[in-house]
Write a structure and sequence with these properties.
Order of helices and strands: EEEEHHHE
CATH class: Alpha Beta
CATH superfamily: Shew3726-like
Structural class: alpha+beta
Number of domains: 1
Number of strands: 5
Largest sheet: 5 strands, mixed
Number of helices: 3
Shape: globular
CATH topology: Double Stranded RNA Binding Domain
Length: about 90
């Protein structure tokens, strides 16, 4: 398993209240989502707005990627949602 994150893109999905990002296992693209509640746990000074969520994601990016690798190593799926409990 080699999960990498070469694409630094991320986006906020207002309807689901999640930040989306992508990882890659060789040629496979894997979608990941971080719940906003998890961002508040990782970065307590998060502003309750889209720009604040994206800033929190950028600040905690290494920890988020680490959690993504951990959940991905347990079971291989096409998409994952990271919750506060994953951190």
């Amino acid at each position: 398993m080699t999960l990498n994150f070469p694409n630094r893109s991320r986006s906020y999905e207002e309807r689901r209240n999640l930040v989306r990002f992508w990882g890659y296992d060789t040629a496979l693209e894997i979608s990941f989502f971080v719940e906003v509640s998890a961002l508040f746990k990782l970065y307590p000074q998060t502003k309750n707005e889209e720009a604040g969520y994206l800033e929190a994601f950028d600040t905690a990016r290494d920890r988020i990627h680490e959690a993504a690798r951990k959940v991905y190593s347990k079971t291989r799926q096409g998409a994952y949602i990271l919750a506060a409990a994953d951190f």
